[in-house]
Specification:
alpha/beta, Rossmann fold, OB fold (Dihydrolipoamide Acetyltransferase, E2P), 3 domains, six-stranded mixed β-sheet, about 30% strand, binds S-adenosylmethionine
């Protein structure tokens, strides 16, 4: 990819930063040309070095801050300048949220031509040690003293040499050095490209991808590392279907990962490579907020689209007579069904609950569940959004829709489609699901007169 189409000016330069970009970089101008400066905040005067020069804008990295913004804070992580895992640790948490709110409302106006009647207060949780799911890259780099484990660097494809991670759950974030030390002497050290982390409320699993079969000595070193820390160990010799547990040994016990949603008395079981929300404190608040905003009544029929393992489906089923969950992955449909059985066995009273596998980007109009009517609709799509669903949302007859989004641009597009279907955007707000990154998680509520929304 040819990125630097001009030779950037050499040396240090000085700039005043006017505003913050959607990607967390400060934006200023030199001789009328826009410059995006990493590590700089609005109101600051900084020295910077150019890294790329393009026809209409330039890019640089701050080297010295002369007048600091009151919103500037000291990053908690010593690797914040290099590691690409986070881009906004130098900005206070409240300002990060204000920026995310701005992004949400700008995108709603720009792509959807809509504004909410009411702004929901942001959902806030722990800003460090929150991340329960991560894919850590692994690379053997002799020049750096062995195996590196972590995220890519900010401006290069190389893995940042980190010894800890402040946003990962501390039980894992503090084990980066130990993980590097156990992987470095292995025969297969250059055949292990990634380690995935998945944590539940009572357990942590590592899934180690390896490109060649592991020797007994290598495997027992990794098992020993996990045993000493109480981590479950899964190995992945091929594609996702090859993931298998090696410790605790299969059959010995059933150490399934679980998380609880105490507001609903529900416990969800999951496999380490299932989709789960990365931030458990925000997830608990988000599920409670979504259910409260959707406000299903005891006799209601609710449709939960992109339902995954039932994160919203089961809580909704504690309130409504009927919930249908629809999801693209058959494995997740099975997990949802298991979770219903698991919670009924625990004595949780759930309304009628059923799951279907369907491609919600495709033509689902003639599937049995899509021909039925529902009182409430919950939509929680991937980043690409729910265009096909929103284009025909009125077919379901729901008086109220709650839309949970991890991409404000597709939410905005879909909000415009819902408005065209006769819905009104009542409320919207951001949720601090991914502190220190520029990911914007949001929630929006739509209603339609003529539908059933009391
Ligand atoms: C953001 S996740 C939400 C999952 C669940 N609601 C939760 O809170 O855990 C999006 C879900 O959509 C599913 N998905 C992605 N593309 C899909 C498609 N085209 N049709 C149906 N489901 C899809 C994914 O498998 C994933 O479970």
């Amino acid at each position: 990819m040819k990125r630097n189409n001009r030779r950037p000016p050499a040396g240090e330069h000085r700039i005043h930063i006017d505003r913050l970009g959607h990607d967390g970089r400060g934006i200023g101008a030199i001789d009328g040309k826009t410059v995006f400066v990493e590590g700089a905040l609005p109101g600051e005067d900084v020295s910077f070095r150019y890294v790329f020069s393009r026809k209409t804008f330039d890019e640089g990295v701050a080297s010295q801050v002369h007048t600091a913004s009151p919103a500037r804070v000291e990053p908690a992580c010593p690797h914040a300048d290099i590691c690409g895992g986070c881009s906004m640790q130098h900005l206070s948490g409240d300002e990060q949220l204000a920026m995310k709110q701005r992004v949400l409302f700008e995108q709603l106006a720009h792509f959807g031509n809509v504004q909410p009647r009411e702004v929901l207060p942001p959902l806030v949780g722990e800003r460090y040690g929150y991340r329960r799911k991560a894919r850590l890259a692994v690379k053997f780099v002799p020049a750096k003293g062995g195996v590196l484990v972590g995220f890519r660097e900010k401006r290069t494809p190389y893995i940042a040499a980190i010894d800890s991670c402040a946003v990962l759950l501390p039980e894992v974030g503090r084990q980066i050095t130990a993980l590097r030390e156990v992987l470095t002497p292995l025969t297969a050290r250059d055949r292990i490209p990634q380690v995935e982390v998945a944590a539940g409320d009572d357990g942590i699993a590592l899934v180690i991808r390896h490109l060649d079969p592991l020797s007994e000595a290598d495997q027992s070193a990794i098992v020993g590392f996990c045993q000493a820390r109480g981590f479950h160990l899964y190995l992945q010799p091929g594609n996702e279907s090859t993931i298998h547990r090696v410790w605790p040994a299969p059959g010995e016990s059933d150490p399934r990962l679980t998380y609880r949603l105490d507001d609903f008395g529900v416990e969800l079981r999951f496999h380490p490579n299932d989709f789960t929300q990365v931030n458990s404190s925000i997830n608990r608040q988000m599920v409670k907020l979504a259910v409260d905003l959707l406000d299903p009544q005891p006799g209601d029929r609710v449709l939960d689209l992109f339902c995954g393992l039932g994160n919203f489906t089961l809580p909704l089923a504690t309130r409504a007579a009927h919930v249908t969950g629809v999801e693209g992955s058959q494995a997740m449909v099975e997990r949802g069904t298991e979770n219903v059985a698991h919670n009924r066995a625990r004595g949780v009273a759930l309304g009628e609950t059923r799951f279907f596998a369907a491609n919600l980007d495709g033509d689902f109009a003639n599937t049995p569940w899509a021909r039925e009517r529902y009182d409430r609709l919950l939509i929680d799509p991937p980043r690409s959004g729910a265009e096909a669903v929103c284009r025909q949302a009125s077919r379901f007859g729901a008086g109220r829709i709650v839309y949970v989004s991890c991409n404000p641009a597709t939410l905005a597009r879909d909000a415009g489609l819902l408005v065209a279907e006769g819905y009104v955007l009542e409320k919207a707000g951001v949720m601090d699901m991914f502190p220190h990154t520029t990911h914007v998680e949001s929630i929006a509520v739509f209603s339609r007169s003529g539908g059933k929304a009391r």
